[in-house]
Amino acid sequence: MTVTLIDPGVEAARLAAVRRYQILDTPPEDAFDRVVQLAARVFRVPMASLTIVDEDRIWFKGRTGLPGGLTQLPRDGGLCASAITQSGPYVVSDALTDPRTADHPLVTGEPRVRFYAAAPITTADGHRLGTVNVLDVRPREVGEEELGTLTDLAALVAGELETRLAARSAVERERRLREQAEAERGRLELLTSTLRRVLLPPSPPKVPGLDIATHYHVASADQVGGDFFDVFRVDENDWGFFLGDVCGKGADAAVVTALARHTLRAAAVYAGDPEDVLTNLNAVLMDEFLGADPCYCTVVYGVLTPGDDGVRIRLAGGGHPPALAVRADGTVDAVHTEGGMLVGLLPEARFSVASTFLHPGDGLLLYTDGLTEARTRAGHMYGEDRLISLAASLAGQPAQAMVSRLEETLSAFGPGLTDDTAILSMTVPPIVRRQSR
């Protein structure tokens, strides 16, 4: 059997990274099992796995098609232990004739592997924790496109681990500071604002044929709210977007917010239908907080498809207020996703999908209920009807102008605004026609 040598210093740093991510000997999780199942479907193989390479063993975090009692193996060279020495995909077309793998126990014994391909799970600082693997009982060749997909799946796993690590670190920092005396309140406010910036995305991207503006109104300087939003590219034609509101505040809300943001972006890569993306998020939240107090949220997730005559929008709703389509003529259509349930509350939650089209001069407004549930100085709730009236008066305005007007409205509530509020506005610029001379 081929034994792959690794520099002792490099290996010591890699093992430290494995410990840092706290994944060894943890129970199976849907988020990782879905990656394994997707890998098996893409490669059309009977077996796939997600493994972490420990000091003297290969430990299986996720697997499909492999023997049921197989949870770990000795760290023998040839398969996973050799794959982590490579910066890119590692392929064995015929394991029985390849000297690297010919006497590996998975080759000589059950399930008698003949084909093996793996992509390393690489951390942000370059450590290879383990691999995403596909296996077959027949020799075969594999193409560059398939290997690219395997690499993408390994990157999704690495991203999930990074998000969890960041969330744990953020929560631990906040909890440590909250144990200090009230005299250190200034330090606590500084930490909270920093954490909020980490959880919120940077400036929105440039989407062809669309103006985008966002705003996050902070109701409390010393508490992290659970509102979140993002806009990102899905593929060469489509863009994804979401806006949501986690139940609760503080450390628990921060954990759910970080997990929800990453899960929605990751699911969008392989689940094209908006309803499937929310179903994936629901499964992840249910699995992550199994046995704990429910950690749920409301979410609107959609897909933008820009075209020559406007932007087509498909969106799914999970218990969130409807998006408002603000037409150029001053009418406002509430884009209802009837029957969409809260995300992360029930294992079999259902979500509904709606579609709309933005023509030149039209816009789409998404918001969290901190806006509509705010109370005026006279004690009256602002409500959806007033918001629709305000949106109608802003018809045809650029996205930033709409958001700026809403910022003024939020500021006017003063102490009547008790919840954080997120706003996402997207508008299609009107067609400017030249006057004939």
Automatic annotation (TrEMBL):
Chain segments annotated as transmembrane: none
GAF domain residues: 27-171
GO molecular function: protein serine/threonine phosphatase activity
UniProt cross-references to InterPro entries, sorted A to Z: Bact_Sigma-Reg (IPR052016), GAF (IPR003018), GAF-like_dom_sf (IPR029016), PPM-type-like_dom_sf (IPR036457), PPM-type_phosphatase-like_dom (IPR001932)
Domain PPM-type phosphatase positions: 207-428
Domain of life: Bacteria
Coiled-coil residue spans: 164-191
Enzyme Commission numbers on file: 3.1.3.16
Keywords from the UniProt entry: Coiled coil, Hydrolase
Xref: Pfam families: GAF, SpoIIE
Enzyme class: hydrolase
Classification via PANTHER family: STAGE II SPORULATION PROTEIN E, STAGE II SPORULATION PROTEIN E-RELATED
Protein name listed in UniProt: PP2C family protein-serine/threonine phosphatase
Upper taxonomic lineage: Bacteria, Bacillati, Actinomycetota, Actinomycetes, Streptosporangiales
